[in-house]
Amino acid sequence: MASRSRKTATLARPSMSETVVLTGLPNLLARRVAERLLDASGTRVIAVVRPKFEEEARQFADGLPKDARSRLTLLEGDAASMDLGLSGAEFRKLASEVDLIHHAAQVTYFGVDERVAEAVNVRATREALELARAASHLRAFVHHSTAHVSGDRRGLVLESELDRGQRPRNVVEATKLKAEKIVRRAARDVPVIVLRPSTVIGDSVTGEVDRLDGPYLVVLILLTSPNELAMPLPTHGDALLHLIPVDYVARAAVTIGRDPRAIGQTFHLVDPAPLTVRRTFELVARAAGKRLPRGFIPANVTKALLRTPGLDRFVKSPRAFFDQMATQVQYSARNTEALLAGTDIHAPRFESYVDGLVGYVRERVLAERRKRAEVEIDDPLV
Description:
- The protein is 40% helix and 15% strand.
- By secondary structure, it is of the alpha/beta class.
- The protein has 2 domains: 3-202 and 243-269, Rossmann fold, CATH 3.40.50.720; 216-241 and 274-328 and 348-369.
- The strands form 4 sheets. An 8-stranded parallel beta sheet has the order 1-4-3-2-5-6-8-12, sandwiched between helices. A two-stranded parallel sheet has the order 7-14. A two-stranded parallel sheet has the order 9-11.
- Helix 1 links the parallel strand 2 and strand 3 (43-49).
């Protein structure tokens, strides 16, 4: 089993070439980042995990290969608390050992409460930066942001740009923008790397995803609609839909985070040839075995669709995603392309993994239906 450190325990340091502090476990991105980090035999990962997520993090650790599991330490703490929720001794020990920080603790689902978003996206960033400042030999602080800090901007967005007068369209974008501003200011005395993935979706191999939110609304509507119904688009469909699988983000993040050329730069992790909303919708419909969409839905009909009974069990704030689908924006990725040139890390085409994504969602929907059926059968009032 992965080693475990409680607040009264000491953090023994094995002979390792790299010690990485990771926040965000057990969210899927943090899990994939941990796996990629641990691929290197000389890497030790110390994951700061909130007590409420300890069991889930433990299950992840137990599923790792034995060698990787032995190099992962789950440290009880809270990224949004002072000193990451650690004891003074633990904090000082981490500061003396850490070579690299991957700050992946974040909340990205649109239905989040504003106070939670502020705590996880903003306050946790401040606390992680305090560890970075206290570290005696830190190589890099890797901040996992989002391309959607661009808010309602249209046209081409450069990696060097941040505050261009844009308006955040939801609380996630607002708090992630605030956090990235804090990180940029810290770059004066901390070796900062900022990663901005576009909308992160499931694993391109397994289809696994944390939450059926955002673009999964389209899949859910298709899977739950009558077979004879050709579902039209919820927008005109000519805007680009910027989707990127979580496994690509993790591989790129680990490689960029280890490259000294990346210090002080920002990297868009995006599909270099994103599909339009219409083309994406067509591919999802085909994978779901549904008739291809024709036309588009007027705004009033779209609002009615969002009130479909049962949809709120999966997607808490679907209108926020429709705002994204209607925004004509493109993201430059020149920094990313230059740094990853010559590696085997490339964003896979959506066509190559859409079947797996739809299949995973289908299984989730069927499992939910089975669960509801069992509850109805067992209900003595039925």
